[in-house]
Amino acid sequence: MRPVRALLLYARLPENETLSYQQAWPRHFAAHPRFDCDPVDVLALRDTRRLRVRAAVRRARYDAVVVAVPHDEFRSRAVRDFVDLLRADRGGVLIDVRGMLDRAAVEAHGVAYWCL
Q1: What is the count of structural domains for the chain?
Q2: What range does the domain containing 38 cover?
């Protein structure tokens, strides 16, 4: 079985970086043998449009995109920005950990939507 290609979008804030989950879980997710994971701390990027460039350069489309936190960096994005990172041939799954996206808007693109 091939690993699941996953893009993990998170934002580590200075006031939270002492919490163990802020440092450990992205590394554990990336190290898991069932995933081929690209963890990206979007607050470390100057411009989130670089995600599209990175995906294009690697010719990477993902089976899953995980949006881990509802920071303004994500709220200001259209649903289409996240959907465009998924593989068009498989539909993919958008995992919205905190439930900030509109389920109907995501599913209208033919993408599965999961949230906690």
Answers
A1: 1
A2: 4-115
66-103: per-residue pLDDT in tens? 887 776 777 778 888 888 888 767 778 999 888 889 99
Q: Work out the percent of the chain whose per-residue pLDDT is above 70.
A: 72
Residue in this structure with the two tokens 């881990």, named with its chain if needed: 68
- E strands, the chain, are 4-10, 35-41, 64-67, 93-96, 112-115
Q: Biggest alpha carbon distance in the chain?
A: 40
Helices (H) and strands (E) counted in the chain, each on its own, are: 5, 5
Closest CA to 6 of 55, 70, 48, 44: 55
CATH label of the domain that carries residue 37: 3.40.50.720
Q: Name beta bridge partners: 7.
A: 38, 65
Question: What three-state secondary structure class fits 93?
Answer: strand
Closest CA to 64 of 102, 35, 100, 41: 35
Query: Are 80 and 106 within 8 A, CB to CB?
Result: no
Say what the pLDDT of residue 35 is. 84
